[in-house]
Design a protein that fits this description.
CATH superfamily: Dihydropteroate synthase-like
CATH class: Alpha Beta
Bound molecules: pterin-6-yl-methyl-monophosphate
Oligomer: single chain
CATH topology: TIM Barrel
Structural class: alpha/beta
Order of helices and strands: EHEHEHEHEHEHHEHHEH
Length: 251
Amino acid sequence: MGIVNVTPDSFSDGGCFTDPAVAVAHALRLVSEGADVIDVGGESTRPGAEPVPLEIELARVLPVIEALAGTVRVSVDTTKTEVAQRAVDAGATLLNDVSARLFPVAAQRGVGWVAMHMKGEPRTMQERPVYRDVVDEVSEFLVQRATAAAAAGVEEIWVDPGIGFGKTAEHNWALLAAIGDLAALGWPVAVGTSRKSFLGRLTPGPDGQPAPVDDRLDESLATAVRAVRDGASMVRVHDVAATVAALEAAA
Ligand code: PMM
């Protein structure tokens, strides 16, 4: 899954693709590099991000989805019912749902659904998240959501541990070590580690801050390969060509 964030403020590529034509060109490049799905998002979910009004999110994502549908499978990264519905009208066939609440739309419209775990909301989620046992809690949540979606009639259900969403670096590493357990829950697993800050913490700068986002490719590739090796069926990435090459080399 190749990422196209049509936002001014996403953590790694915010502001790069706010012009729909530029976003579409970028998406087509990711497709030529081997992406099977393009994930179009119009609301940043980076820690501290404020919600985006409905009309603005629609204006960001719909032209891009319309232009891509028919060429490649398109997912929409949203938490809003109306954006999900309009995105499906525009040709999206997968709802990438970091709120794990939109399965009624997927059921009603006959599209796929990715249920991601998030603790809290983006504005506050990184303020000292605490878990009894992060793998147990995330697993229980995903089973509960996926079971509800299946009962509602959703036929294609993905589960995603939500790396970086209300999690410390230790939580993220524990979840990555448990991808095999998540896959054993019975639904295909999607994982997104690409360029996230816990990877930058492996190689902090002299100021102790995580390495900058452009300096996290090696760790992004290694964690994508590791996730797929352990049973993940989809990785959500910015660097498609490098990820495809890494996965092929490790196959
Ligand atoms: N991460 C981000 C956004 N959407 N969706 C899923 N399913 N899984 C993720 O890990 C995920 C996501 C944050 O990354 P971005 O700001 O680069 O899009």
